[in-house]
What does this fold into?
Amino acid sequence: MPELPEVETIVRGLKKVLIYSKIIHIYKSKYNLRISYTKNFETELLDSKIINVYRLAKYIIIETDFGKSIIIHLGMSGRLLFQNSIYKKHQKHDHVVFHLSDNKSIIYNDPRRFGLVQFIKNSDIFQNKLFKDLGIEPFSKDLNYKYFASKIKNKNASIKQFLMNNQNIVGIGNIYANEILHLAKISPFKSVKYLNTHEIKILIESIKIILNNAIIAGGSSLKDYIAPNGMLGNFQSYFKVYNRENKDCFNCKKGRIIKTTLCQRSTYYCIYCQKIN
DNA sequence: ATGATGTCCTGGGCGC
DNA sequence: TGCGCCCAGGACATCA
It folds into this structure.
């Protein structure tokens, strides 16, 4: 489900409303998520205060004054909702509810349960296996030609697969990989070993542009994603290739958008302006 | 080590 | 209306 722009939107929304709230009750459903809940999940952070909310890759990190953070990943279908009132009406697939002071609540809902909610000591976050192999943040200054070139060295993967691999660059999922490659006018099938200097530079720019524009639009709302306040993002109305099978290309006005499969994920590209050579 | 494939799950949409 | 099939914003494990 959510890629970096959606997670970033959620984090910005939560940051406005959660700081200094105290956790007074934690509910979890009987179903496990992708990773089992941390031990003492329902009691560990009781009475702690939320002191920060931030994003790492596609993870939402809610930091408490107990020196521990709540780590949330939304998987494909997860949602995080905020309510300015005590949450009583449980919906199907509500798996975790944090009841906070001032009658606020945060609700984690995830039909497919591919996500996770964990508590991790702040000092252990980067040693944790969820985080230790993550690549660079796309808005980092260090995402530059040198970094990119070093990462693609000796690799044979397609560029789309490379972009979606969190060990290279974090936060890019299937939608934005498609959009980034279209903006860069590079075929998703192109092997990273054939990318030239110019293409790499354009790609780096395209990553930043697409993700930034998506954040400005509040993310993309297809089926599952809505911001914690219930608002829908609208970047989907700016999609140039994703979900545009057989439509004309906005970019070159000559080609048509093709839908195909690459690495078992639906892949959209313009047959004219994203040629492999 | 790398890349391809399978797997965890539920629900929506489609064709019959 | 109902059934079976395929598809879905992710991330891993496993295998050659």
